[in-house]
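ok trying this again, last paste got cut off
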Amino acid sequence: MRLVKLDTPEGFMYINPDHVVAIVKGLRDTKIDTVSGTHVVKDPPEVVARLLGMEEIELDVTPNRMLGRG
């Protein structure tokens, strides 16, 4: 099992890349959704994706307000 050390507002935390579901960019921080819950880290999404070993990252540029309309 491989763990990645990430910097959070409370200190450092270790995350298993196999358990990551999504990486979401916030205003100041990045939110990582895992199978066990949500965690906030300080690094930008591109850095987090690279640290977790993701070679390609799909960017969704749809504004949040448009997602609720259909």
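PB: full thing came through this time. The longest strand covers residues 20-25.
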